[in-house]
Amino acid sequence: MSRVARQRDEGRRGTRFAARLVERIADVGAEAWRRLDDAGNPFVGYEFLSALEDSGCCSAKTGWLPQHVVVEDESGRMVGAMPAYLKSHSFGEYVFDHGWADAFERAGGRYYPKLQASVPFTPVTGPRLLVDRAADIEVVRGALISAAVQLAARIGVSSLHVTFPTEAEWRRMGEAGLLLRTGEQYHWQNRGYRSFDDFLATLNARKRKMIRKERRRATEAGMVIRTLCGDDIKPAHWDAFFAFYIDTGSRKWGSPYLNRAFFELLGERLGDRIALVMCERDGHAIAGALNLVGRDTIYGRNWGCIEYHDVLHFEACYYCAIDYAIEHGLEWVEAGAQGPHKIQRGYLPRRTYSAHWIAEPAFRRAVEEYLARERREVDWEIELVSRDQTPYRKAPGPADSQGGEV
Q1: What is the pLDDT of residues 184-233, one digit of tens each?
Q2: Which residue in 163, 205, 202 sits closest to 346, CA to CA?
Q3: Do the domains 191-330 and 7-185+350-388 match in fold?
């Protein structure tokens, strides 16, 4: 069902488009969504996004009401889409704008609702301007950006936020007038390693010794750690992992975002792209880490435990992911947001991106000035870490630019 009437626009090469907001990805349909190029990123695929909606994790009740931007050509065929949500809060986004909301509302404005173009609860860079593989990518990207801004203005939201797009999309949004923001995460890059020991050989002696010690300690006291994929993941594993997720989430954030139904649907729909690390002690599952696998990257998403064991988190979330990447020839490990402690374990800083449209001109100018300062600080921090804090014997330099063309 479309929430608003069609928004008509004309591409830069004379192609005419119609745009609308869609409240359920099922109304687009699996076949049409799968025609869109996801660049091998599992999080923008129909299976992942529909699991969030079908499980109730994304709904008006949770403050994540789907409002996907859909662009159609003159024949009515969908040629592009942007996953988007009407938000009544700023939780689960990982690009923090709480300060913006507070400032705007103290000045008498109404910040919520806002339109959020993202993958809910998922701080993973990937395409946000999804284009039909048979369409002109640059024309449709431009139409999607224009449509998103026009539709945001039309429904009267304070702002539009596109979080964790690729660098190429981010630059295109800047050209279209959106405000540009950068952040950083710590990612591991596979530089052609044949084994984990091959990777360790590139580190300085102190870091190499530390990691070996941590890996030994993680498997002491009868701990068995396995990485499960596809049909090897049974309902009992999901039951155990959900218990870990709830216990850890409740202690850290107070209100976990995902429910048991989501994990079950995820296993059914994306089982062949899941790498579930399970940790057992004396035959009982006590911790786990959930990873999804893309074309060239393994993405660490959720971790949980019901028993505390020193360094087990590093083994399950960081080292097992590196093992998997080396074994399967993947180039990157993205182990989630934040975490400077990852540096000494071989993960280096890498830029992340977001773009923002703000309706109120004075507030827009204030945010624009803030973002210019923030981008300089991010650049300085990445340069400092890459130069002075690298664990490698010969510094490889900053990780490659995030994203690029999709």
Answers
A1: 999 999 999 999 999 999 999 999 999 999 999 998 878 999 999 999 99
A2: 202
A3: yes
Q: Spell out the residues 6+ positions from residue 160 whose beta carbon is closer than 8 angstroms to its own.
A: 114, 115, 116, 117, 148, 149, 152, 178, 356, 357
pLDDT per position as a tens digit, 232-286: 999 999 999 999 999 876 665 557 899 999 999 999 999 999 999 999 999 999 9
CATH number of the structural domain 7-185+350-388: 3.40.630.30
Domain 191-330 has CATH 3.40.190.10: no
- Residue among 66, 63, 76 at smallest CA distance from 3: 66
> Which DSSP letter does residue 319 get?
I
Residue with tokens 């159609």: 72
Structural domain spans, the chain: 7-185+350-388, 191-330
Q: Is the pTM of this model over 0.90?
A: yes
Q: Tokens 């593989």 — which residue?
A: 133
> Does residue 254 contact residue 260 with C-beta atoms inside 8 Å?
no
Amino acid at 45: G
Among positive and negative, which fits the CA dihedral 87, 24, 127, 122? Answer: positive
